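Hey Z.,

So I finally got round to the pyridoxal-5'-phosphate thing we talked about over coffee. Here's the setup:
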Amino acid sequence: MPDSSAVHFTNAFDIRSVGCSGDPTMFEAFWRETGDAAELVIPGWQTMSYFSDVGNVCWFMEPLFDQQVRRLHRTVGNAAVDGYHVLVGTGSTQLFMAALYALSPADADQPTSVVSTAPYYSSYPAVTDFLRSGLFRWAGDANSFVGDSYIELVCSPNNPDGAIRDAVLSSGAGKAVHDLAYYWPQYTPITRRADHDIMLFTVSKSTGHAGTRIGWALVKDREVARRMTKFVELNTIGVSKDSQLRAAKVLGAVSDGYDVGGGGASRHRLFDFGRRKMVERWRMLREAAAASGAFSLPAETSGQCNFANETAANNPAFAWLRCDREDVEDCAGFLRGHKILTRSGNQFGADPRYVRVSMLDRDDAYDIFISRLASLK
Ligand SMILES: Cc1ncc(COP(=O)(O)O)c(C=O)c1O
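And the result:
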C-alpha cells in the first residue's frame, strides 16, 4: 500500500475509532450471521408507483411495513399499537419534524416553544431551528420553561445520558412527543407498554439499519396523524418503498427470532446479541474509567424486564462521561488531544466537563477507545 493511503487509512480509522456520531455499526456482526433471513430482491417493475395504500391515512406506507411494525411491538411489549395509526418516515428525524408541524397551531401569534429536559439530544435544537419556522421555535430546557403552550420532547432512555424520563410539563395546552428510539431490550429493561399520544421509533437504533433511513410514529389521534402525513407529503412526497420493504424484512427477521408460538423461533436473536454486547461494553467501560481514575459515569440502574422475564440493567447506547480532573474544563478538547473524538456536553445544553461517547461502534474501534481511555490519568 502506498504511503499516502496508509496515512489516509490511519486518519479515517482514528475518526471511526471514537464514534462520536452514534453510527450503530456494532449490529453488523449480528446481521452477517443471519444468512438470507433479512435479504431482499426487488424486481425492476416493483415499487414504482408513488402510492402504497390509498385507503390509509399514511397513503405512502407499505402495508407489509405497517404489519411488521405492529408485530414487533407486540412481540417486545414496549409500545401499544392497538388503536394507533402507524406512520412511516425517512428516519424518525423526518417524523420529529412532522410532529412539530402537526402540533403547532397555524393561527398562533407566536411560534410554539419546543423544549426538552437538559441534557437533550443535540439534534432537537438544530432540527427545530434550521429553517427558522414561524410555527415553532427552540426554547431550551423544559425545566426552566414558563408558559402554557409548548411541545415537550421526551427522550427515554435519553440521548445523551441514558436516563429514563417522563414529561416534566403538564399544561392542558401543552403537547408531548415521546422519542423512544432506545426503548428496546438491548438498551434497557422493558418495564411497561408505552402508550403516549405520539411515539417515535427508528430502525437506526432498534436493528442498527441507520442507512436504510426508516423510522415510524405511533399516533393516537387521527387528525394529528393526518397532519404529520401531510408534512411528509410536502417534504418528500412519501418515503422510499424500497427502504420500507427492506425495513419490513429486517423487522420480520427480528420477530421471527422470538416467534416461539409460531414454531419459527430461529437461533438469530437480535436482542440477545445486543444485550450481551452492551453488558460487555459497559463492563469494559466502567473498568477503563476506574483504571484511569479521571472519569466518572452515571450510576448503573436496573429493573424487571417484561420481555426477557428477568432483572436487567440499563445499558445506554451512549456513555455520558464526566472528566473529574480539576484542570480540565473542556472534556471533549482534552480527549481530542488523546485521539478520542466525542461530542461536548455543551451541545446537549450541559456542562462541557461532560462528553457523549457512542457505545455502538464496531468491536475494533470500541476496543481502541477503551484502551486509550484506560491509559489517561
Ligand atoms: C433520540 C434519537 N432520536 C432520533 C434519532 C435519529 O433517528 P433516525 O436515524 O431514524 O433519523 C437519533 C439518532 O441518533 C436519536 O438518538
